[in-house]
Amino acid sequence: MLGLVILALISVIVITLLSFLSKTIGKKILYPVAFVCISILLFISGLIVGEWAGMGLGAVSISLFIASTVSLIVIVCLHQMNIRSPNKS
Fold first, then answer.
1. Is 15 in contact with 67 (CB distance < 8 Å)?
2. Could you tell me which of 84, 79, 74, 82 has the C-alpha nearest to residue 13?
3. Is-contact 28 75, C-beta < 8 A?
4. How confident is the model at residue 2 (pLDDT cuts 50, 70, 90)?
5. Among candidates 6, 20, 26, which has minimal Cα distance to 67?
6. Burial class of residue 12, CB neighbours in 10 A (0-12, 13-18, 19+)
7. What is the 3-state secondary structure (H, E, C) of 19-65?
8. Phi, psi angles (nearest 5°) of residue 21
9. Among positive and negative, which fits the CA dihedral 11, 12, 16, 17?
């Protein structure tokens, strides 16, 4: 269980840092959405595989889904804070 929490935290950091490489908000949001799609595909493949391996894939996909959602919320909130803050130049 602790491994999945650590995986989710590392995924949030990586997805958020990857999204900051882009300039526009549309491209910044694209990274978390892509990871959500990957997590859904992992979940479906976990259902197809079945047994213990499928359960492991399901757990990893849920952890990645949660990390992508949290990362998306963080990116949008940081973007909104950046828009509302006045320019100091």
1. yes
2. 74
3. yes
4. confident
5. 6
6. buried
7. HCCCCCHHHHHHHHHHHHHHHHHHHHHHHHHCHHHHHHHHHHHHHHH
8. -70, -25
9. negative
CA distance 78 to 82: 6
Neighbouring residues of 12: CB distance < 8 A, sequence distance ≥ 6:
67, 70, 71, 74
Specify the amino acid at residue 21. Answer: L
Length of the chain: 89
- The overall pTM is greater than 0.70: yes
Give the residue-averaged pLDDT of 72-83. 88
Hey, what amino acid is at 6? I
- The pLDDT tens digits of the residues spanning 16-37 come to 999 888 888 888 899 999 999 9
